[in-house]
Structures are given as structure tokens and as C-alpha cells.
Amino acid sequence: MKKGVSFLVAVTLMELASFLASAFDPSPLQDICVGINDPKNAVFVNGKFCKDPSLTVAEDFFYQGLKNPGDTQNLVGSNVTFVTVEQFPGLNTLGISMVRIEFAPYGVNPPHIHPRAAEILTVLEGTLLAGFVTSNPEHRFFSKVLNKADVFAFPQGLMHFQYNIGHTNAVAIAALSSQSPGVITIANTTFGSNPPINPDILAKAFQLDKKVVQYLQASFQ
């Protein structure tokens, strides 16, 4: 009798564990996805529609968009070339993507967040300072100087950056754990939102003079 009860308890626990393991919401693959009852008015699903497998060819899993260097002649001195499901449909449902990052001397990939992905970066050429900051309330800052072939990881959703501290150009490749990782550049999002955030709010939040905030907003519009 006891063995029978123990067996039933074990089966019940296994079924409960299986239910808990499968009872989760799918990770979002875009910033917003409002539910709708009428599918005729739907514009996309959480991801891409799938190509008929019988029509799939090798070229669907092949991409050449990283072979050309990016233009770093801009205010931050860097260029990021994305390879997400938008550029490379073969990544659909695979949960991966990557980027190539070019840096002019002293160029920076400004502080930003990937809301849907962790990141692992390796330096191909040059020397970078890479770092990230943890969430409230600790705000711990982790950073490391990276040379050629060094690797650094950035946890999902944490603000991070890369800065070329060398006198020459630098190149890095990063892999991300989502086909659509998203990117929120802190300065652009804060001061370049559309419509603009009330400058009184930003002045209070950043402890800045309102005129400084307005100047920054004008710079990022």
C-alpha cells in the first residue's frame, strides 16, 4: 500500500514539475505586441511566419552582410552592423543573432541595453574597454580591457558599452541570445524620444539645469 502511495506521489510531483516547466509566457520578440481578437487586423506574430520546409534551400541559412567594414565617421566614432532575423530570415526560431562593431580610434559604442538578449563579445582587432552596470540598488560596475581574441560577456538587460582605448581602429564581433535582441541607446532614448520627455522631469532625474536638458534634447532630435 505504501509503495502504491509513494508511486502516486512521485507521479503527481513529476506531472506538477512538467506543468511548471511548460507553463511560461514566450519571450517577446518585439517592443510591443497588443492582443487583438480579430486576426484580420493583425499585422505580425511574435516572430516571423515560417517558410514551407520543402522549399527551404541552403541559401536561407547563408549570409554575407558582415564582410564590408562599417562607416565610423560619425559623432561616436563607431558603427554596428546587425545580423538579426530582419537581415537574415534563416535565424527565425533559432534564438540567436550577432553584430559586427567597428571603432575609429577612441570611438565608443555608447551605453545601451539589449532588452531581449545576453551578449558575448570577442575582439578581432585593437584594444577595447568593455563594461556593464548591474541593476538597482547596487549599480556595480564591471569592466575589463580587452585585447585581440579576448572575450567578455554582458548579462541580459544590463547597460553596457565598449570603448576603443587604442590609437588604431578596432573591430569586434558579438553574439546575442535572441533573433531579435533589440537595442536601447541610453542617451538617444532619454534625450531623443518622440515626442520629447518633459525637460522638467529629466532635469529632476539627472539633477541638471533645465537649459542643459533642453540643449541635450535639441542635440538628439
Characteristic key phrases:
221 residues; alpha+beta; five-stranded antiparallel beta sheet; 10 strands
Task: Give an overview of the whole structure.
This protein has 221 residues and is an alpha+beta fold. Helices cover 21% and strands 26% of the residues. It is built from four helices and ten strands. It has a five-stranded antiparallel sheet, with no helix packed on it. A five-stranded antiparallel sheet has the order 6-5-8-3-10. Mean pLDDT is 88; it is low at 19-24.
Distance between the termini: 75 Å
Structural class: alpha+beta
Query: What is the radius of gyration?
Result: 23 Å
Structure summary, number of beta strands: 10
Assign an overall shape: globular
Determine the number of helices (DSSP H or I, runs of at least 4 residues). Answer: 4
Low-confidence stretches: 19-24
Provide the helix percentage.
10-25%
How are helices and strands ordered from N to C? Answer: HEEEEEEEEEEHHH
Major sheet summary line: 5 strands, antiparallel
Spatial sequence of strands, sheet with the most strands? 1-2-9-4-7
Beta-strand residue percentage: 25-35%
Residue-averaged pLDDT? 88
